[in-house]
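Example 3.2
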Amino acid sequence: MALRIGIAGVTGRMGQLLVEEVRASGAELVGGTSRAGGTSRAKAAPQGVSLFPDIAALAAASDVVIDFTNAATARPYAAAMAESGKAWILGTSGLSEADEAAVAEAARSIPVVYASNFSAGVNLVLALAERMGAALPAEDSDAEIMEMHHRQKVDAPSGTAVGMGRAVAKGRGVALSDVMESGRHGHTGARKTGGIGFAALRGGQVVGEHTLIFAAATEHIALTHRAFDRRAFATGAVRAALWVAGKPTRLYSMMDVLGMA
């Protein structure tokens, strides 16, 4: 029996790519919810895709739900998915600490794959970022992260940029929240030793560009990933959905899916 996959936010840009990828994977596309979470404000659904009234109804008809909606839905969706008992693939960015706590709580009841980015290439970069953070001491190498996205993106820094920062911080044995420096403006004083800096650029229709820089007195190292098509994220999310089927209840990352955890 084919795996039944539902797509939250199926009428959005990512949702429509996910439709194509689910169909190409051989899984059964159950349908989706509109980007608003219901049908009243929905754009036209992709041809042949059924719209469900809410996330609970979608989860009830699915084995796995893929969710790229928005941060405002994270906590109610976490509760609904936990109640459903179905697996959840979550790629929404801009989640707060409280949102992430709700996701972790849901993962006590269901298998959840939560990732700041589902691209295989980005996750390889994150693995390298952690190793570089461990190898390049904070006292000698300043870590800076620069990202650029399309003008419609509502959160900054991006989830992938934050993921990079967390990887560097993990490599250095610190919490990102203790060393993060974002949005410098005015007379900020000298750079703090050990800080991890962030710069967010917005403009045009850039899918996603991320650069991690380690700047020492004698050399600079830059690690860059550029996404040219959102399909890379959709492909990775469907890969995660196929992988998580039948897995034990817990919180997973894309590193688990790729066998790199």
